[in-house]
Amino acid sequence: MLDGWRLVMVIRLLCREWRIVLFMLCACAIPPASLRAQDCASCHDQSQKLPKSAHAALSCDTCHSDHDKFPHPADAIKPECGTCHADEAADYARSVHGVTAKKGNEAADCSVCHGSAHELIRPKSTEFRATTPDTCGKCHSGVVAQYKASVHGQAVARGVAQAPLCSDCHGEHSIQRHTDKASPVSAGRITETCSGCHGNVNLAKRFGMPSDRLVSFEASFHGLAAKSGNQSVANCASCHGVHNILPSSDPKSTVNAQNLAATCGKCHAGAGQRFAISPVHILANQAEPIPVFWVRIVYLFLIPGVIGLMLAHNFGDWLRKVSRIRFAPVAAPVVPARAAKPEVRMLGFERIEHAVLVISFLVLGWTGFALKYPDEWWARPLLLWEGHWPVRSWIHRAAAVAFILVSAAHAVSIIVSPRLRRHWMELWPSMRDLREAIENMAYNLGRGSVRPHRSAHSYVEKAEYWAVVWGALVMALTGLMLWANNLMLALLPKMWLDVATSVHFYEAVLATLAIVVWHFYSVIFDPDVYPMDTAWFSGLSARKNEATPHEKKETPV
User: Fold this and answer.
1) Alpha carbon 95 to chain centroid distance?
2) pLDDT computed for residue 426 by the predictor
3) Could you count the other beta carbons within 10 Å of the beta carbon of residue 232?
4) Are 482 and 501 a contacting pair, CB within 8 Å?
5) C-alpha to C-alpha distance for 346 and 538, rounded to whole angstroms
6) Contacts of residue 65, Cβ cutoff 8 Å, sequence gap at least 6
7) Residue 113: closest CA among 92, 87, 94, 93
């Protein structure tokens, strides 16, 4: 039992060290899971930095599980970021950095990019974005030097928050090599990545950037081929550069007018040697070359005009014939006369030519429009291998060769065979064809009740034949220009390749519609030959005799 003097001394000691007592009471009262930074400040200066970091809301023991042991064990387990950031850790493990680190090699990790866990700043903050290029420059100094000199790096230096950083293009934690298909900067995805900014109308308007670059690229051969899955076709980076992107007005830019020959020459040897390469991004009604403009205007009037006349002619013809069949009085039975020998409409060699022409035309149409409309269901089978082999292009060119060869064979056969030449002369145009066309068109539109005369080889067959001749010449010429694009770019201004592209597409549309509307009606849907004219197979037509001017009056439609 303490005497009075000793009791007084203990009480005085406790009063003097009241802070120790208070700390012990607080340590007993505060649960371990809520240890605050200021509680560790007496020994750890990191706790003074924590309130300014992105982890300010966390208590120290959220990461440091051995805080309750004092002194702290020397082998205390250091916290892992993946404990809280599991998704980011999983992305990092699959990234080029994570794979490199897993092999035991030096690679960027969380602390290299974000800094210490006690003082890291929020990734979305302006301060973090401003330091991102320097952070990446710790390992990629040469690349970052190019980036800082580029239009993007200069914008970041000026404080433009919307300017793209390394992580905007390459990704954040899941960075892959550009050769990996999953990488946002791979050949198959670079256009999509660039479109994040250059396809944004608001950004384009705010910073005075052209708003049509993505649309015009996707409408070009390069864009269409890339959309189809072609990995080797030129993309945004092929022309504009990767980290060294500069405005076209800069003499050092790869797309400066003085440097386009070298840039395009990487794929098209000799391009721009004789003539300067004209603008690459071409969009209808927006700075397109004058010849391209007139080609488009002519075809936009020609296609609906020609196909519209065909529809009016054939629909009227169909109505007249169906009305005659439906409402004509039943004729008395007539003893059939001895049938005359039917006329041969297509000779044997002509039928072979026709078969090759049909197959090559169908394949050309399928493979050609598959490039223009790669998302359609009928185009997808052609594009299954496009990422590795240009199967669609191979098939299209093989069909083009067959089409050109059968056209040449037809011309040669006319020259060397008198019989084929005499048969071909029946398709030579005359003024009679114009008169018959006008009279039959008027009749089909409801003028008159007597069907006008139509020759055995009438304006219907002649118009179709000479349209095929014209189309074959135009498609072969423009197709060969597009096939030999390197030679064309070396010998002619790029503008003429643009003209060939435009003509080739519009002529294909016109030819396809003409076949469907004019030819299919003539050989399938015409009531006189339905369900099919067999001349293509047997050489003998199923078409009934055409009316003469002395034909009896019919019931009007």
Assistant:
1) 27
2) 92
3) 13
4) yes
5) 8
6) 77, 79
7) 92
User: Rounded to the nearest 5 degrees, what angle is found at the Cα of 131, between the Cα atoms of 127 and 136?
Assistant: 150
Q: What is the DSSP letter of 518?
A: I
How far is it, in rounded angstroms, from Cα 280 to Cα 293?
Answer: 15
Name beta bridge partners: 283: 286
d(CA 374, CA 383): 8
User: 52: Cβ–Cβ under 8 A, 6 or more apart, which residues?
Assistant: 119
Task: Render the burial of 351-377: b for 16+ CB within 10 Å, e for the rest.
Answer: eebbebbeebbebbbbbbbbbeebeee
The two three-digit tokens of residue 303, written as one number: 């296609």
DSSP state letter for 174: S
Among candidate residues 411, 410, 409, 383, the one with its CA nearest the CA of residue 396: 383
Q: Of the candidates 129, 220, 273, 254, which has an alpha carbon nearest to the alpha carbon of residue 502?
A: 220
Residue ranges of domains in the chain, CATH in brackets: 122-265 (no CATH), 290-326+343-538 (1.20.950.20)
Mean pLDDT for each consecutive 10-residue tract of the chain (557 residues)?
53 54 49 57 71 78 71 73 87 91 88 83 84 90 93 91 91 91 91 91 88 87 90 91 92 93 92 86 78 94 97 94 78 56 83 97 97 93 89 96 97 96 94 94 88 89 96 97 94 93 97 97 92 90 55 39
Closest CA to 85 of 160, 174, 10, 16: 174
Give per-residue pLDDT as tens, 214-225: 888 988 999 999
Model confidence, pTM: 0.80
Phi, psi of 402 (to 5 degrees): -60, -40
**CA distances, 245 to each of 151, 214, 277 (Å):** 6, 16, 20
Q: What is the pLDDT of residue 327?
A: 75
DSSP letter string, 203-238: HHHHHT--SSHHHHHHHSHHHHHHHHT-SSS--HHH
Locate 229 and state its tokens: 């899955």
Its sign, for the CA torsion 487, 490, 494, 499, is: negative
Closest CA to 124 of 161, 85, 176: 161
Determine contact, residues 283/214, Cβ cutoff 8 Å.
Answer: no
Helix-, strand-, coil-residue percentages of the chain, each rounded to 5: 60, 0, 40
* Rounded CA separation 371/25 (Å): 78
What is each CA distance from 12 to 6, 9, 21, 115, in whole angstroms? Answer: 10, 5, 13, 48
